[in-house]
Amino acid sequence: MQQKNRPFELADVQMRARRLADGVFAVMASDIEETDHTATNAGFVVGDSSVLVVESLSNARLASQVIGEVSKITSLPIRFLVNTSFHGDHCFGNFAFPSDTVIVHHDATKRVIDERFEQDRSFMIGLLGANAGIEETVARSADITISASGSFDLGGKQVDIEHIGFAQTDGDLIVRVREDNIVFVGNMLQAPPPAFPWLLEGRAEEALTTYRRLHDMLDEHTVIVPGHGGAMRRADILYSIGYIEKLNGLARDARDKGLSSSQIHEALTMKEYSGYSMYDFIHFQVNVPAVLGTE
Ligand SMILES: [Zn+2]
């Protein structure tokens, strides 16, 4: 992948905790309000007896920042660490967490990390650049796996973890704190509009079903922490749904009409979504080939 497509310079990212509710924090890039920063988000939930962290980020430096943000709030131990997918920007920092922290994955995420960590690490170095601390990362996969759902009691605070279907990977997990109406969804939702889904593994129809399910299980007051960017609301999910529905429709038409590849570029241009900084790359190089089956 070319350098111009790099979403940000990893070495510049500084993470800061933001309180969402009593004992529930998102950890986001410190300059997220001023920029359309697309650094990966983390989070943590603090109970009376222990802490659960969501995501370890791309490398030891960022993982240590997340651990540092936890220690500013509480001295309780980080008992659990959940990765919402195998994507390196969400889980490559696992090895920097204490050895007694229990890592939690969906079965499919553990399988990918156990079987093709080196391949994913090379991909992430290509995406985020050399010397960004990714070379030093060491694979650390789950101690506990979840296939459908699980609950963790942190002492007066319950966290529910669910797999509600494929959105971006087979192992997508969401992390819910129901009593506070907060959900961490990882890359299932890339970032607030104008960001739209990255169909890295195709399967647009399955992703649509999962987006609709997520929309229907939340309410208008739910605070959603996406994989990247600022917090979202339920209505924002409709933007991702609308994008895929339109893309699918245009792809169907293009196939029916037997358009040539130069006509396809024109026919599948979706100008109203071009405000997203990653539009050229993700729309034309990832999503269009994914829905046309021409990757
Ligand atoms: Zn991500």
Quick structural summary:
The protein is α/β, with parallel strands linked by helices and 295 residues long.
As a percent range, the share of strand residues is: 15-25%
Rg from Cα: 19 Å
Q: Percent range for helical residues? A: 25-40%
First-residue to last-residue Cα separation: 15 Å
What do we call the CATH homologous superfamily?
Answer: Ribonuclease Z/Hydroxyacylglutathione hydrolase-like
What is the helix tally? 7
Order of helices and strands: EEEEHEHEHEEEEEHEHHH
The CATH class is identified as Alpha Beta
Q: So what's the overall shape?
A: globular
Would you kindly provide a written description of the structure presented here, covering whatever features stand out?
There is one protein chain. The chain has helices at 60-73, 88-91, 107-128, 204-217, 234-257, 261-267, 279-292, and strands at residues 15-21, 24-29, 42-46, 51-54, 78-82, 102-106, 144-146, 149-153, 158-162, 174-177, 182-186, 223-226. The radius of gyration is 19 Å and the shape is globular. Helix 4 packs antiparallel against helix 5. It has one domain: Metallo-beta-lactamase, Chain A. The strands form two sheets. Strands 1-2-3-4-5-6-7 form a seven-stranded mixed beta sheet. It has a five-stranded mixed beta sheet with strand order 8-9-10-11-12, with no helix packed on it. The chain contains seven helices and twelve strands. The model is unreliable at 1-5 (pLDDT under 50). The chain has 295 residues and is of the alpha/beta class. The structure holds zinc ion. The site of zinc ion has 7 residues, from helix 2.
